Predict the structure of Response regulator transcription factor.
Amino acid sequence: MIANQNYNIAIADDHKLILAGIRNIVLDNQLGTVVGDASNGFQLLQLLQHKKVHLAIIDVNMPEMNGVQTAKKIVELYPDVAILILSQYENIELIKELKIIGVKGYLSKSFESDQLIEGIKTIKENCNYFPLLDREHITFKKDKTQLTTRELEILSLIAKGKTSKEISCQLFLSQYTVETHRKNCMRKLEVNSTIQLINVAKDKGYILYE
Amino acid sequence: MIANQNYNIAIADDHKLILAGIRNIVLDNQLGTVVGDASNGFQLLQLLQHKKVHLAIIDVNMPEMNGVQTAKKIVELYPDVAILILSQYENIELIKELKIIGVKGYLSKSFESDQLIEGIKTIKENCNYFPLLDREHITFKKDKTQLTTRELEILSLIAKGKTSKEISCQLFLSQYTVETHRKNCMRKLEVNSTIQLINVAKDKGYILYE
DNA sequence: ATTTAAATACCAACTTATTGGTATTGTGTA
DNA sequence: TACACAATACCAATAAGTTGGTATTTAAAT
């Protein structure tokens, strides 16, 4: 067991106020030492090169390099660093994906700071912290609106403002294929326009950065 | 001059972590007493009915009732409450509008927490705090990409996923008129699809809540 | 009094998106 | 092996969005 003052925490979030907020919560509750912060994944990875970090708290919605990409890289390069993911949304599929990647915890931002404290303490004791998954375990239901990998890929390109034609060129696909995927996404999310598609997809956390 | 411990502050933000963050900054720097917080404008207005508040710190991007709408209501109903607006973006036109409405300060979230502290201190001394406007004063430039009130109104409806036809019905306009406004928005923001229009408009802070 | 800008409205040609189908291939699983 | 599903591709009809114009009215500013 590492003493609290020797438990090194790094934070990545593109909102400075949230960085400061987390930093304060960590300090006030003596959960560890914040050895640095970052506004995106690249900065966090740079930080990890120079400093010994036990826990990385990462926002999933960051520009440049989002939380999922960053988490994958960290697990690959620094398997000893525990990862706690913060997100605005409660997307069960995303949480499951992150758990498989190897992150230690997932917290929705709509939760109180108490949960952050609990999450850090739990991870510090080398346990996983996925309160949303546990809840889901009780009220288990097969989600029909799951999007496939390809659908998510195309969705993120649509969200960036690309047309079906442009996407088909970029992915070396037929325009028809892209339109089929688009259509299936719309059916699954029960919408009937591109804007609604993107709005709902963001709401449900299928698109990580706008 | 009100003593710090008697300076009552209310905070409105839909992110609990930011609420906690601001609360901590206020406490740690002994800037006042946080007498309550809210997740949207309605909650904040309810709070003001029951508690004496000297300063309301309001996030501009909130669901249900956004920061601008909330600020207007507060100025109307509680003209003695000072307002500090927080935003993710640096939209000079928005800041000017807020200043005219009567808010006392505007802070971009990309700024450090030092600025929040400075902002609260400045407003407490009954001065305005608009660091972005002051900067703008030096590098003054007439912005050609200003959107009109009507354009902003239509833009926000487009962002909600409504079609031109639906918008024309809702606003009792010809569909042609809506399409003209849409076209002019797209020209001004230099885009050529709805999704790009909404993306850029959000980036520039023309759309306050998604 | 003249100019400028916002808001309104219309037309036509063209491009994309949307809806509702069908169909094939490969992969992994019951 | 048979089944389910993801990924691919195609067709056709309809709806919506995009582009490039013109034009009128009203209100505010010079």
Summary: Residues 163-165, 179, 182-183, 186, 192-194 of chain A lie near DNA strand C (CB under 10 Å from a C1'). Chain A has a mean pLDDT of 87.
